[in-house]
Specification:
The chain is of the alpha/beta class and 344 residues long. 44% of the residues lie in helices and 16% in strands. The chain has 13 helices and 11 strands. Helix 7 (117-134) packs parallel to helix 8 and helix 11 (272-291) packs parallel to helix 13 (331-341). The structure holds ligand G3I.
Amino acid sequence: MRLVNLGLLACAAICSLQAQSLRSLAEQRGIRFGAAVAPSHFSETEYATVLAREFNQVEPENLMKFGLIHPGPTTYSFGPADSIVAFAQAHAMAVRGHTLVWHNQRPKWLTGGTFTPEQLFSILQEHIKTVVGHYAGKVYAWDVVNEAFETDGSLRKTMWSNSPGIGLEGTGYIEQALKWAHAADPKALLFYNDYNAETVNAKSDAIFKMAQDFKSRGVPLDGIGWQMHIGTKPQIAGMETNMKRITDLGLQVQITELDVKVSVDSSGAATPAGLELQAKVYHDIVALCVKNPHCTAIQTWGFTDRYSWIPHTSKGNGAALEFDVNYQPKPAYNAILEALKAPR
Ligand code: G3I
């Protein structure tokens, strides 16, 4: 009898641990909790174990970008991103696609070539049709266009917009990309994704105006992605206002690239106080999403500090994710759990 009880106790402990994963709590809330990933780490047991245990969504950090998936004019390289889809399918995770139209990470054949707007129109059309078509039914949501606006709300000058552009004025190229993506997979949710546009400012005003226009004319836009590469002073009230105006339009918001950088020493370590502050930020962001039923996914840009882009690009900062370099949950992880458990 005692043994049985001990067994039950052990099971209760393990089961409650499992019930406490990010993915199980997110599932209870009807949202997805995702991570950006690189399949080169799947062979690392801890990476694969934590990813499968904690997340119900993945997104390639790089492998679906134009330069990697379409390396030659008529060459596509689907294999690496396909392995992410296979991992997701094996672990009942959803896949977000990132990204079809961006000014970065383009292939040499594109950046080094000279093209007319007519040629670029055809190139982009064929790219979107081929990539979205390949993943139809496997990728449930796409960042169709990424980072098209400047901080002041003007349109970024890019190969796709106006330098030389695909021959369409203003946000016309974004509209066209959404239409091509919709034609290639009518069931996929289509997002416009950007950074520093989560609170109310000139950039988010411009995105909102575009979204309003698209919605009024039936352009297939389903939501706005907030990247959210942030620090420890987020403006939650402004985010709430911005989220409300977007979701009032009938659009979703997804937090797509969340990481919260803190100061680190030369070994990459943050202070306990820094990690506590970071935990509060994670809590408040997740709570913000949980509160609005049209905020449908939260995704961090990676999940372990072992593989994060932050230390490579932001000197003196790091430790931005919810698991440390040894895959141990940080205060941020527990704070996310608490926020996922809170009533709406
Ligand atoms: O894979 C090559 C490797 O073979 C080579 O030896 C090495 C030398 O530099 O580079 C490796 O490629 C790097 C790649 O990441 C994979 O690690 C590129 O140099 C590097 O530029 C690239 O950075 C990516 C960055 O986008 C490019 O702009 C980051 O991993 C990725 O996290 C980042 O993601 C973006 C989102 O797509 C959009 N929002 C912002 C976000 C952060 O910048």
